[in-house]
Amino acid sequence: MPTQFDAIADRYHADTRRNDELDRVGARINAIIPGKVVLDIGNGGVFGYDPRLATRAIALDPSAAMLSKITIPSVETIVGDASKIDQFIQDGELDVVVCHVVLHHISGRDVGDTFRIRNELLATIRQKLCPGGQLVVVESLLKPAYVLPQRLLYAATRWVLARSEIPMIFFYSKKELADAVCRAFSPHVSEMLIATKKLSR
Ligand SMILES: C[S@@+](CC[C@H](N)C(=O)[O-])C[C@H]1O[C@@H](n2cnc3c(N)ncnc32)[C@H](O)[C@@H]1O
């Protein structure tokens, strides 16, 4: 099924140029992926890191147009939604999962549904990671003062976006995100790598 990102893929890629933030995050990811199996959820054809360092790099995204921007032949692509990871990936198959600016696109009909979908995704990621595996989350984070207003305005925001056929977006504060990841991975969290990204990219 075509997605909102299919329609904007050309523009997104024209606007997404290499920048310091992408390089900084990419350098940290480069350090952990050599010889590893990497799944990049919501990859969108954008790599801050070098996927050729990995034994296998798998880019998963529901937008075929975004994935078509990938120019590195060794990258495996899967057109699919994050909720369908189970269909493509075996338990324990992955060493590293990358979620680069994608979690805010994963939403449901209301706040509770969004949290449920997010928690299910994190639980699935944990299941697919091998022991000692790593999850890298890069997100545009919400200031704590906006957490409650965003929740209260969920239905209205969703309605307004739907008028323009834009799926709901829902941002997390650093604490909310860290808590959700810690809960999903407890007691196996040894280090959290949460890089912040400016919305201005
Ligand atoms: C803001 S773009 C980020 C793309 C790339 N990771 C980057 O950093 O530029 C969000 C990407 O997430 C993908 N996406 C949206 N909903 C998704 C979902 N439910 N599961 C997986 N990917 C999704 C979109 O198609 C899009 O490519």
What would you say this structure looks like, in words?
The structure is a single chain. The chain is α/β, with parallel strands linked by helices. The protein has a single domain (4-196), classed as Rossmann fold, CATH 3.40.50. The chain has eight helices and six strands; from the N terminus they run ααββαβαβαβαααβ. It has helices spanning 4-15, 20-30, 64-67, 85-88, 111-128, 147-152, 154-163, 174-185; strands spanning 37-41, 56-61, 76-79, 94-100, 129-139, 194-196. Strands 3-2-1-4-5-6 form a six-stranded parallel beta sheet. The mean pLDDT is 91. S-adenosylmethionine (SAM) binds at residues 3, 5, 16, 41-44, 46, 61-63, 66, 81-82, 100-102, 105-106.
Q: Classify the secondary structure makeup into a structural class.
A: alpha/beta
Radius of gyration: 16 Å
Give the total of domains. 1
- Distance between the terminal alpha carbons, to the nearest Å? 27 Å
What's the story with the biggest beta sheet? 6 strands, parallel
| Proportion in β-strands | 15-25%
Strands ordered across the widest β-sheet: 3-2-1-4-5-6
Shape, principal axes of CA atoms: globular
Ligand roster = S-adenosylmethionine
Total number of strands? 6
- What kind of oligomer do you see? single chain
Query: Kindly state the mean pLDDT as a whole number?
Result: 91
Concise overview:
With 201 residues, the chain is an alpha/beta fold. Helix content is 38%, strand content 18%.
Sum up the structure in keywords.
single chain; alpha/beta; Rossmann fold; binds S-adenosylmethionine; 201 residues; 6 strands; six-stranded parallel β-sheet
